């Protein structure tokens, strides 16, 4: 409990930290007052059973005072706690939002998106539940028994000692069980995350799974993940119930020992029967608090897990921003002895040096996994290089600042993301202040005007989740229109590998030619037209540049590029034949 309060304090600002301290103090006061009220029951009962009305009337106002003070402290603490809980919901979301926008873009992948959405929904609610629902009963469950023990020490020290030994044993058992059940909760959480990721993946990849007749295989993955989820939840239930059972058993044993001791003291004449009854009532209330503690500790562990996951994300190092961003001289790109590794062990790029002069077209080719996409991602600073530097207009991208870099770079990758919204919204997002004329011009150059003409409501047509109403080539054209409208001097482009129909192919080619004009373009090239038109071609293999030069030079050289060229011409020849035979 102390741990979660300490962790919460690191999540919030100074005024909220003070509010948290106030809430904890109020709940501690509530627990003490409750414990004292319980303890007062002993002399009241004792006096009542002995029919000593003078003594009873002395104690009754004390009991009433404690009762009122307890409820006032409870109301103040609860109000402050709820207020803090509402703020915590906002604070968790705001801090996650503020921090994740500063994390390297390379940090994001499908699993991260799933984790983030769980943190923002269930995680934030778990965290808010701590001051909202959990702290009060948990603090009461610890503080009021301690108060009872102290009070009882004045009344009957042997019983106080027995209760103290019992409470220490129950707390030790709870700690031990927390560790065991906590492991089960970790496994359950991982299984839940895996299950959700597989279901999302299965839904998103339906078209591919169906085309390749792999829906059964896809189902297997989902089913295995869901089965594991079920197994983990059953294991958690068994350990959870088992743990709670052991705790309850320990508490019952404590109750039995105290009852036996009280009866023995009473029979031995050390304890008046009236006091003995009072002490037993007190013990029962005491035990109830311990049961509450056992039941709530599981919810506390879950909240602590959620809080730790949020704090882990907040502890991730954001991209360092320069204090005084430098101004690039032009739109030339240079990689100087760049080395990069995703995991710190495997070198993905190794001493890559490359100069792309302003307004030139550089085509990057190479086998799958050779590091082409990584190279492009480093230029856009999705990650920082491990060694060497990436420069734009002579300035290291780390000295340029993310916003300034993003203003100068357009990215057209294969997996075009289209938002739920109108076609217009999807194009204009790259430059919200663009005029209608600029929008129409970008659309004309990217051949998006053809799409506008085809759609029932033109620009206002909603294009559905992830652009489901557009074809692959059309989505690429929308993405190119975005880049044209943004009008950034540098374009990073990953050409679509998927074969397009003849009409789309021509339209995409036209759009790309418009985009490349007057801009510095680095393109992962898959089309023959692109490599032929390139000012320089760079061949990557195993993270190193193995060949570079113009198309003619490289063909004459007869190395890797020649292999690439032969492969592509065969593939395109095959596509041409296939197109002809259909006609
Ligand atoms: N986010 C990542 N985390 C860890 N390793 C990665 C990540 N992305 C790529 N890699 C690894 O880095 C290497 C280079 O990958 P990259 O995607 O840059 O190659 P590529 O040439 O673009 O491949 P392809 O043509 O298949 O897209 C591969 O071994 C890949 O497995």
UniProtKB/TrEMBL annotation:
Subcellular location: Cell inner membrane
Record carries keyword Transferase: no
Full protein name: ATP-binding cassette subfamily B protein
PANTHER family for the chain: ATP-BINDING CASSETTE SUB-FAMILY B (PTHR24221), ATP-BINDING CASSETTE SUB-FAMILY B MEMBER 6 (PTHR24221:SF654)
Domain ABC transmembrane type-1: 23-290
SMART domains named among the record's database cross-references: AAA
Bilayer topology annotation: Multi-pass membrane protein
SUPFAM superfamilies for this protein: ABC transporter transmembrane region, P-loop containing nucleoside triphosphate hydrolases
Keyword Cell membrane set for record: yes
Taxonomic lineage: Bacteria, Bacillati, Actinomycetota, Actinomycetes, Propionibacteriales
Cellular component, GO annotation: plasma membrane
Taxonomic superkingdom: Bacteria
Pfam family, one: ABC_membrane
Similarity section: Belongs to the ABC transporter superfamily. Siderophore-Fe(3+) uptake transporter (SIUT) (TC 3.A.1.21) family.
Membrane-spanning intervals of the chain: 20-45, 57-76, 134-155, 161-182, 236-261
Molecular function terms from GO: ABC-type transporter activity; ATP binding; ATP hydrolysis activity
Keywords: ATP-binding, Cell inner membrane, Cell membrane, Membrane, Nucleotide-binding, Transmembrane, Transmembrane helix, Transport
ABC transporter domain: residues covered: 333-567
